[in-house]
Design a protein that fits this description.
Blueprint lengths: L3 E5 L3 H10 L5 E5 L3 H6 L6 E5 L5 E6 L6 H12 L6 E4 L2 E4 H7 L7 E10 L5 E9 L2 E9 L8 E4 L5 E8 L5 E10 L2 E8 H6 L4 E2 L7 E8 L5 E11 L2 E13 L2 E2 L3 E2 L11 E9 L2 E10 L11 E9 L9 E2 L5 E9 L5 E10 L6 E10 L4 E12 L1 E9 L5 E8 L6 E8 L4 E2 L3 E4 L5 E7 L5 E9 L2 E9 L1
Parallel strand pairs: 1-2, 7-35
Antiparallel strand pairs: 3-4, 5-6, 7-8, 8-9, 9-10, 11-12, 12-13, 13-14, 15-16, 16-17, 17-18, 17-19, 20-21, 21-22, 22-23, 24-25, 25-26, 26-27, 28-29, 29-30, 30-31, 30-32, 33-34, 34-35
C-alpha cells in the first residue's frame, strides 16, 4: 500500500521539513491551491481517504477517531488482498514499481538538484549552493563561477547523513559562509555552519542550534563588523507530541556564539506555530520575519488571522523589539526579507486566498516595505491569480538597482521564471517580465555582482532529472 500525504497550501520545502521531522516515508501530493482538499474534505482535517488499485474511493473521513473499527477492517482487507511489489527508496521514501515506471526510474533514480542560494564576492566570483539528491542521499554542494567558467562541484556537506536546504553569504571580509540543516549528530536535525576555508581545510562544521528536538530552515545575514546573525525554527513538544514550532536566533562573532534568543513570542499558546524565518539588516538593525499561525491571542492585533507574516527587530545587545504584522487576512507563508540601498527594507511572501476572478483559491506574491516599528505603505501584488508561487528572492546593488525574482505556475503543472524590477525613484515595483520557461525552472535565487550584473541560479528539468543552472540576466 502506498501512503500519500496531501500538502494543502504549503511549499515543497515546508513539506519536506515536516516529512523529515516526523521521519515519514510518504509521497507528497502538493495541493498548493487546496483544490484537492476542497473537493474531497470540504476544508476539514484531519482528513483520510483510502483508494483501491482501480482508483475507487473505499473510505474517507474527517476528524479521524483513533481505533476506527471500519477503517481497521478496510486496512486489513487491503493488506490481505495486496500482492508483492518491487520497491525502490529515494530520500527515505519507498516507491512502488508502477510509480517509477511512469517516471522512467526503474533502472536508476533521477537526480534532484534544488533549493539554490547565490552570493557574489568582491573579487567577481559567484558562489552557488544547492541541495543535491543523488542515489537516495541528500548533500550540500557549491559551485563557483569566475564570470566565464564554473568550478567542479565542491562538497560542503556530503556524508551518509541527511543534509539539505543550504544558504550562502559573504561577509565584509569576503569570507564565504554556508549554513544548512543536517541530522549528522545524534540523528537530530540541527543547523550547521561552516566557511569555505574550513571546508577546504577539512575542518568539521559548527552546530548553531541547541534544539532538544529538531531545528530547521536556517537563514543568515552579516553586519558591517562581520558578525553573522543566524535564525531558524525549532520543534517543541505539546504534551507528548512534537508539534509546536518556535523561531530562534544566535549571532556568531570572533569564533563564538551568543546565547540562543527566542524570537517568536513566549506569552501565547504553544499551538501558535511559528515557522520559515527570514533575516536581514538595515542601518545595523537586525530584522527577522516569519509566518505565525495566528489565532488572535489576547493582547495582540485583531487585524490579522490565520498564518500571518510578523516581524521584529533585534539590537546588537540582543534586545528584542516590538512585534508587528506585515500581512493580514489570507494564508501567508514563506517570507523573504532584504534591504535596499536607499535604506528601505522589503518583505515578499506567498499568499493564498479567494480568487477575484472565479470561486477558487489562488496565490498572490505580495511585497511591502517596513521600518523598525511597523510595515509602511500598502501591500503591493507583484503577481496574482496563480496556482503556485516558488522561491521569491530579492537582489539590490549599490547603484539603487533592485529586482525580485520568483517562479510561478498558472495551471499547477507548467512553471516559468519571472522578475520585477525596483524603481527606486518612485519606490515601487515595475510590471513583471518572464525570464525563462523551458524546463520548468524553479527554486531560484538571485544576486548582483560588483559590476551590477544580475545572476540567477535555478533548478531546471532535464533528461537526468533536475539540474542547477546559473545565468546572467539583462
Amino acid at each position: 500500500m502506498q501512503v500519500i500525504r496531501v500538502i494543502s497550501g504549503d511549499n515543497e520545502l515546508s513539506a519536506l521539513d515536516f516529512q523529515k521531522h516526523y521521519r515519514m516515508p510518504v509521497i507528497h501530493l502538493m495541493d498548493s491551491d487546496v483544490a484537492f482538499e476542497m473537493k474531497y474534505s470540504k476544508g476539514y482535517w484531519p482528513f483520510l481517504m483510502l483508494v483501491d488499485s482501480e482508483g475507487k474511493i473505499v473510505y474517507q473521513c474527517t476528524n479521524l477517531i483513533e481505533r476506527d473499527k471500519k477503517l481497521m477492517r478496510l486496512l486489513h482487507k487491503l493488506k490481505d488482498a495486496s500482492y508483492p511489489a518491487a520497491t525502490m527508496a529515494a530520500d527515505g521514501v519507498y516507491y512502488m514499481n508502477s510509480t517509477l515506471q511512469r517516471s522512467g526510474e526503474v533502472e536508476k533514480l533521477l537526480q534532484n538538484e534544488r533549493f539554490t542560494s547565490i552570493a557574489a564576492g568582491r573579487d567577481g566570483q559567484i558562489y552557488t549552493v544547492f541541495t543535491s539528491l543523488k542515489n537516495g542521499n541528500s548533500d550540500i554542494v557549491m559551485r563557483i563561477c569566475d564570470g566565464t567558467s564554473f568550478s567542479k562541484d565542491i562538497s560542503v556537506a556530503a556524508t551518509d547523513a541527511d543534509e539539505y536546504d543550504g544558504t550562502v553569504l559573504l561577509d565584509n571580509k569576503n569570507q564565504v559562509w554556508v549554513c544548512w540543516t543536517s541530522n549528522a549528530v545524534d540523528s537530530k536535525y540541527q543547523i550547521h555552519l561552516t566557511s569555505l576555508k574550513d571546508v577546504q581545510d577539512g575542518r568539521e562544521s559548527l552546530i548553531v542550534s541547541q534544539s532538544e528536538d529538531d531545528a530547521m530552515h536556517g537563514r543568515m545575514t552579516a553586519d558591517d563588523s562581520g558578525t553573522l546573525w543566524i535564525t531558524y525554527y525549532q520543534w517543541h513538544n505539546i504534551g507528548k507530541n512534537s508539534r509546536d514550532k518556535e523561531v530562534y536566533l544566535r549571532k556568531y562573532s570572533n569564533g563564538e556564539f551568543s546565547e540562543e534568543i527566542h524570537i517568536s513570542p513566549t506569552d501565547v499558546s504553544s499551538y501558535e506555530d511559528h515557522t520559515d524565518p527570514s533575516i536581514s539588516i538595515m542601518n545595523e538593525q537586525v530584522f527577522v520575519s516569519w509566518s505565525w499561525d495566528f489565532h488572535r491571542p489576547k493582547g495582540y492585533t485583531q487585524d490579522a488571522k490565520e498564518p500571518t507574516i510578523f516581524a521584529r527587530t533585534i539590537s546588537q545587545d540582543l534586545a528584542l523589539g516590538k512585534l508587528f504584522h506585515i500581512s493580514g487576512h489570507r494564508i501567508d507563508a514563506a517570507p523573504m526579507l532584504s534591504s535596499a540601498s536607499n535604506n528601505n527594507l522589503w518583505c515578499a511572501w506567498d499568499s493564498l486566498g479567494q480568487s477575484q476572478k472565479e470561486p477558487v483559491y489562488r496565490k498572490t506574491l505580495y511585497v511591502r516595505s517596513l521600518n523598525a516599528h511597523d510595515a509602511t505603505g500598502k501591500e503591493f501584488a507583484v503577481a496574482e491569480d496563480l496556482v503556485n508561487v516558488c522561491s521569491p528572492c530579492f537582489a539590490f546593488d549599490n547603484s539603487r538597482k533592485g529586482v525580485l525574482t520568483w517562479s510561478q505556475s498558472e495551471n499547477g503543472k507548467d512553471w516559468s521564471l519571472w522578475k520585477a524590477e525596483y524603481d527606486s525613484d518612485s519606490n515601487c515595483w515595475k510590471e513583471p517580465t518572464m525570464i525563462i520557461s523551458e524546463g520548468d525552472p524553479r527554486f531560484g535565487s538571485c544576486v548582483y555582482d560588483t559590476q551590477g550584473i544580475l545572476w540567477i541560479a535555478y533548478s531546471v528539468r532535464t533528461d537526468k532529472g533536475r539540474e542547477i543552472a546559473v545565468k546572467q540576466v539583462d
